[in-house]
From TrEMBL:
<feature type="domain" description="OB-fold nucleic acid binding">
    <location>
        <begin position="4"/>
        <end position="96"/>
    </location>
</feature>
<keyword id="KW-0540">Nuclease</keyword>
<dbReference type="Pfam" id="PF02601">
    <property type="entry name" value="Exonuc_VII_L"/>
</dbReference>
<dbReference type="InterPro" id="IPR025824">
    <property type="entry name" value="OB-fold_nuc-bd_dom"/>
</dbReference>
<dbReference type="GO" id="GO:0008855">
    <property type="term" value="F:exodeoxyribonuclease VII activity"/>
</dbReference>
<dbReference type="GO" id="GO:0005737">
    <property type="term" value="C:cytoplasm"/>
</dbReference>
<dbReference type="InterPro" id="IPR020579">
    <property type="entry name" value="Exonuc_VII_lsu_C"/>
</dbReference>
<comment type="function">
    <text>Bidirectionally degrades single-stranded DNA into large acid-insoluble oligonucleotides, which are then degraded further into small acid-soluble oligonucleotides.</text>
</comment>
<keyword id="KW-0269">Exonuclease</keyword>
<dbReference type="GO" id="GO:0006308">
    <property type="term" value="P:DNA catabolic process"/>
</dbReference>
<keyword id="KW-0963">Cytoplasm</keyword>
<dbReference type="GO" id="GO:0009318">
    <property type="term" value="C:exodeoxyribonuclease VII complex"/>
</dbReference>
<comment type="subunit">
    <text>Heterooligomer composed of large and small subunits.</text>
</comment>
<comment type="similarity">
    <text>Belongs to the XseA family.</text>
</comment>
<dbReference type="InterPro" id="IPR003753">
    <property type="entry name" value="Exonuc_VII_L"/>
</dbReference>
<dbReference type="Pfam" id="PF13742">
    <property type="entry name" value="tRNA_anti_2"/>
</dbReference>
<keyword id="KW-0378">Hydrolase</keyword>
Amino acid sequence: MQVLTVSQLNEQIKSLLESHFLEVYVEGEVSRPTYHTSGHLYFSLKDEKSVIRCVMFRSDLRSVPFRVEEGQKLILKGRIGIYTPRGEYQLYAKELHPAGAGSLQIAFEQLKKKLEAKGYFAKQRPIPDFVKTIAIVTSATGAALQDMLRIIDKRWPLVKVYIVNSLVQGKEAAQDLAHSIEIADSLGADVMIVGRGGGSIEDLWCFNEEIVAEAIYKAKTPVVSAVGHEIDYVISDFVADLRAPTPSAAIERILPDKEEILLYLDTLMDRMHKRMQSIVGLKEQELRHIQQSMAQLSPHRRLELYRQQILNLSQGFSQALRISIQTKEQEIPRLLQALHNSLAMQLQAKTNELILLQQKMEMAYRAKELPKGSAQVVKNGKPVMLSDLKIGDEVQLQDLHYRVGVKVESKDVL
């Protein structure tokens, strides 16, 4: 009986498996993927019943355009190998392909999601309304550049164009394209166009690289992404400030049409002509108004007004004087009559006062003749007898020193 060591057994198993499973294709679901600091990828593939450990070395991993994530369904091309120190067998992957969507599409969606989370799609710089300089980053030998230059010459030949030659296809294109974007950004142009003509997804893939997206994001110049045809979408379309469906459309969107500008200028000239006519008409009216005002406010006009005012005042004064004299002449008889009436009234008043004084003297004289302690009866300023009084009469009892008002309440005959 041959007795083997553990190492010998593992080596025999290793030789047997590796010789029979030099190339296998295995489909399964990714579990616990780990990107090691060494650059290698460690993961497992599983189905409903089994699981197998896998490893993909850094040199082979470079060809995988997407990132391996938990739950992805992949088709692995590789070989079976044994790790003899632990007696464990595993799959050594050479190629990885998505079991459903294409690998490039998965890589596109992964990068798009990553950049959106970093805010690369939120930065939008305004495109100037009137572009004076354009920096075009594309292949100097491509048909897309000739199309853009032809449309520039047709629409707005006054614009200054900088052409920054760049690779737009191939493995080295992404690095070269990012460097060209940095150069174009340093030229101080009003806007930058980054693009190329149509092609397959592989041909356009450099515009889906993160290094290109980062260069567009960091650029200070507003960027227009013009890649492929209208149906083609690349990462640069989302990071750029404006997406144009084609390179030709990019020129049409940022440059005005000289024919439209000329028509617009004709319209402005017509409006300006009409406006100038209106302004001149208004100014003529203002001038006539000023002339009339100056004529009315001129020194000769003012002297004439003052002369007329003096004449009017003189005539008014003369007329007022005549009226005053006539009025005074007419007022003399009236004044004499009023004076006569006033003197007559004063004379009558003095006469009445004299009569009153005479009555008072007479009453005082009579009161003096009354016995001491008696008084005489006075009604309406005249002494009366008691027999002349009536019930309700108001009279005064008067002596030399006092006068008392009384009212007759009753009258009896003694």
